[in-house]
Design goal:
Blueprint (H helix, E strand, L loop, with lengths): L1 H23 L3 E5 L5 E2 L5 E6 L4 E10 L12 E3 L2 E5 L7 E10 L5 E10 L21 H26 L4
Parallel strand pairs: 2-8
Antiparallel strand pairs: 1-3, 3-6, 4-7, 5-6, 7-8
The protein binds copper (II) ion.
Amino acid sequence: MRRLTAVLVASLLALVISTGPAAAHAKLESMTPADGSSMPAPPTKVVLTFNEPVGSNGTQIQVKSPAGVNVATGAPQVLDSTVTQPVGAMIEAGRYQVEARVVSADGHPITVSASFTITHAGHAPDAPPVDPTAQPPSNSNTVTVVAMCLVMLVVVALAIVIVRRRPAR
Ligand SMILES: [Cu+2]
């Protein structure tokens, strides 16, 4: 009899543990850019879509560059079941890791771990415009940096032209 009681208690506990919290927690349904995807141009935002509305308090999203720099800028915007995180310039090509902490409707936090890869580095948008009439700076390091920026600008411009020229699907 004691054994039967123990088995009953154990089954009840198992039932509560397995059906209780799991049913109520938000789950990531999709991400834009898609988890595991690879693209040439850096996105300007990361959008997480969950299977149910999530809370706006306590939401934290980090988008880490291959070197570990967080490129997320500003607060994530929560609208029903989607969370939009603006991201700044992605000046490194490679894999970006998305680490999100989102609060489920029942108040419990969940964490999301996903990633995407960009094959072409972006360019810092707040870089000063290049003045073609400017005197070449005396510092050779500065010249190198400016030259690299110019090359990046050309690459990005080319990428935009190529993407625009592709016929619509
Ligand atoms: Cu919960």
